[in-house]
Amino acid sequence: MSTYATPDYAALASDIKRWAHELGFAEAGISGVSLGQDEQHLERWLEDGYHGEMDYMARHGTRRSRPDELEPGTQRVISVRMDYLPPGTQHAWDVINDAEAGYVARYALGRDYHKLMRNRLQKLAERIRGVIGEFGYRAYVDSAPVLEKALARNAGLGWIGKHTVLINRQAGSYFFLGELYTNLPLPIDRPASAHCGTCRKCIDICPTQAIVAPYRLDARRCISYLTIELKGSIPEELRAPMGNRIFGCDDCQLICPWNKFAQDATEPDFAPRHRLDGAKLVELFAWSEEEFLRRTEGMAIRRTGYEGWLRNIAVALGNAPPSAEIRAALLAQAEHPSAIVREHVAWALVKQRERGEE
């Protein structure tokens, strides 16, 4: 039986935010389902081909920008965020500046966040059901076509920066997002206002110049896309700018002035595993497929696959200072069964030789 008389949706909204915090979310907000301008922005982005091989970005049509088409009956979206920066992690710039180490995006160092957050969103839904009875809802964490950043902005959780990442005034940008689509007519929060001003640090620092204009990201040039989403050969002109980034890239966040307010993760499972916050490239390159699968179990790194893992590390080894150890590591994989791996190892060996002759 409901503990709310009518029910009192304003009181329920306040309770939802409190419950979300109790479940480990840093913040929660509520938005409506109107995303007209964001839909136009998405359509232009797709028309420009900036999504590359991510065909799923276009496949779902307007369901991505119209929540009530994805989940009929949706009236409101409860957006949540969870800080992910693990305390005690090696400083990102120190790893990036160590050409013999492999840089892994800070969000991917520990447990994969998808199931963890979805389970907690389910618990949030169960708490709501406990006080109002059955209601319509669906939980999402990167599991369906959802314009999560636009919804989170409208829910007051932050604004979309020029690098297209959500920024929160009190917490920077190192956080995950999740959503609970619901048919409850909850009061909505005020959208967050933008505070990038004239700053363009993220645009200028991007190693591959993937941010082609403010709020316009060409994913085909983005290191996160190249090391995770792209399944084939990395364009040669983009290999050197990748440096030692082997899974994702954080440069645009690292340079953002708002991340001086970034909060450490409170979730222990986000702590780095297998010293991946600064492990040596040669060590990682020596992992067998069995080791890769075992060590990355329950981690986002699995997304790149073993072939992609070796491809990415080969590029980083090619960008490293020449050494006998690196050449030996590359030669050990020169006859790898994968044509993709062989191609990138061959490229890296050429770069090692060229640098050694300088």
UniProtKB/TrEMBL annotation:
Comment on bound cofactor: Binds 2 [4Fe-4S] clusters per monomer.
Pathway the protein takes part in: tRNA modification; tRNA-queuosine biosynthesis
Localization: Cytoplasm
Enzyme Commission number, as recorded: 1.17.99.6
Similarity-based family: Belongs to the QueG family.
Oligomeric and partner information: Monomer.
Name this protein carries in UniProt: Epoxyqueuosine reductase
Organism expressing this protein natively: Dyella flava
